[in-house]
Amino acid sequence: MRETGTQQVEASVRLPDRRVPGAVAGLVRACHPEPTAVVTALVTALAAASGLGPARCLLVAGAVLTGQLSVGWCNDRVDHGRDVAAGRTDKPLVDGVLRPHVLSRAAGTALALCVPLSLAVGPLAGLAHLTGVGAAWAYNLGLKRTVLSWLPYAVGFGLLPAFVALGLPGRPWPPGWAVLGGALLGVGAHLTNVLPDIEADLAAGVRGLPQRLGGGPTRVLAALVLGAAAVVLSVGPPGPPGAAGWAALGITGLMAPLTVLPVPGRARSRVPFLATLVLAATAAAALLTRGVGLGPGPGSG
Q1: What is the domain partition of the chain in residue ranges?
Q2: pLDDT one-digit tens code per residue, 243-283
Q3: Which of 26, 238, 269, 296 would staple 98 via disulfide (CB 3.0–4.6 Å)?
Q4: How many beta carbons lie within 10 A of that of residue 266, not counting itself?
């Protein structure tokens, strides 16, 4: 007798336990390691460039890391049934490396750690960061299925500069270009991240903004949004962009086709999303090379 989708999900839950090393590897895979590592590294580097001391930079790194881990693990846990139905054997919950309750506990533990780490940077800074993390959880828990699917990304990434700046002496609000640039990067990341899954999402009833637009328009919109982010982060800070700023814009121009053109023979290619991470790292590197931070000083705005 053929199993229903629900029975298949239940069968995956009853898989035998695996060895601990396999579970650890599964947790690493389930946390969406590339964006988790890139976001944590970039925000920590921005904190150091803005004048936060080593101890506070470690707090920033810990808060961002645990926040990103909680969001990634929550995402895979919430999407478990849909991933099973779509045959996503690249997911550790689907291939049996992890059990759902393990991932649920990991997400809850990471979120619980994120709260005190965020607040230790400063009350207002912690509130800004936790608001962004909360927006990401709201995306996982339902907003991803609505036309406002882009909003949690804009809020979450736009508030990362605020997290750093509000942890500085005097608790200054970050310059507008930093908030806008972060928000644009977040929206672009959302668009390119969803691209490979649009057809499967529509079949599962997920109708966020990219799914409603379709693959072609989403690629064009992603390129426009990411291009705007690169321009804002290059020309927004005070003073001329300099060689680093123009180099970042040049690299962005070279990366743009990777976010627009589909990869032949690879409908589920992650190249557009990985290109987005490279673009974000390039923009951040240009800022750091120019000595631009978020604190008081000639390069801070």
Answers
A1: 18-289
A2: 766 777 777 667 666 666 665 555 566 777 877 887 788 77
A3: 26
A4: 10
